[in-house]
Protein: Aspartate aminotransferase-like enzyme
Amino acid sequence: MPFEEKFHLRIPGPTPVPPRVQHAMNRPMIGHRSAECSRLVRQCSQRLQPVFGTRENVLIITGSGTSALEAAVSNTVAPGEEVVVAVTGAFGDRFAKIAGRFGAQVHRLDIPWGEACSPDALKSFLASRPRVKAVFLTHCETSTGVLNPVQDLATIIKEHTDALVIVDGVSSVGGVACEMDAWGIDIFVTGSQKALMLPPGLAFVAVSPRAWGVIRQTEGPRFYLDLQTYHEDLERETTPFTPGIAHLFGLEAVLDMIEEEGLENIFARHRLMMEMTRAGVRALGLPLLTEDAVASPTVTAVRGTENIDASALQKELRRIGAVVASGQQHLKGKIFRIGHMGYCDPLDVLTLLSALETALHRLGGTVRWGAAVGAAEEVWNRV
Ligand SMILES: *Cc1c(COP(=O)(O)O)cnc(C)c1O
Structure:
């Protein structure tokens, strides 16, 4: 590659940061108790509400996405209490591990990786576990590219238990329609570096009134991630600790971009990029991990073939200048994952598919030139 610093970052997070956001982050530093910082905190929190589909405050934590997962657990569950975690991949597994670490009695509903958790499976799992305090779900399971039917799952949970519905939206919020209030989600969390087009470093948590009731009654050791302190401080237009101020500068620019494009257009763009990616991959004869019905608009997992394994393809793509992600845990070496979220457009998808044609060819595969690109262009331009 002629340019060492030039590559196409197509992993499912961190994702590319728009130049406009990068510029905004270069503003001179300000004090974290200044009026300007208060304005940023207040306005960013408010402007994030429609992205989550909520009228609740969106709390801003300085930390990676996992800090928000941990906050969702440590503020709602005390040792010995029962929780259910629907595990559809590595991130559901992480939720289960966090809950276990905080002493919860964890009931894992393990779903084969690559499949979604169905409402029926959850319903029968909950039937024998009426005492659960919270059910943890992953909206987009980034490790497999599955979009779980969170709306239907939340309905089942509400029908059969009093449990809180707690959802990891780290790779969905900002790229996929999210209706926290309408769907009955009690705690909805995300991170900055996926569909929200920021560098890693911020996490966001939205909490329902019902969840606040539970949080107030749940004692446990927590300090940095005590959500009540974030809530009380947000009322005063500030944060308990020094926030990632440069990230707030960037977040304001991201929110400008989101409002200019419009959420519906953003969601349509992500669906289009998913369909283009899947059509292109199929045209090359590479198997997809997930079925169309459960495919996520933000990330696509591709299997290797008998002759060409997924990690070889990933390495060859890197040589060409395209960065994709490997599989996690038992899918390592079996799949690679293409991120198509955030600052990504149809032309980026064509570029990646073109690189995939070349990578496949260089590894000895039979490629009809333009097959993947052409299939994706057909999807892009269909009337
Ligand atoms: C990326 C991701 C996380 C973890 O975020 P970190 O910022 O790495 O802590 C959690 N859940 C999902 C679904 C993710 O995609």
Q: What stands out?
A: The mean pLDDT is 97. The chain has two domains: 8-15+262-380, 19-259. The first helix runs from residue 19 to 25. Residues 19-259 form a domain with the Aspartate Aminotransferase; domain 2 fold (CATH 3.40.640.10).
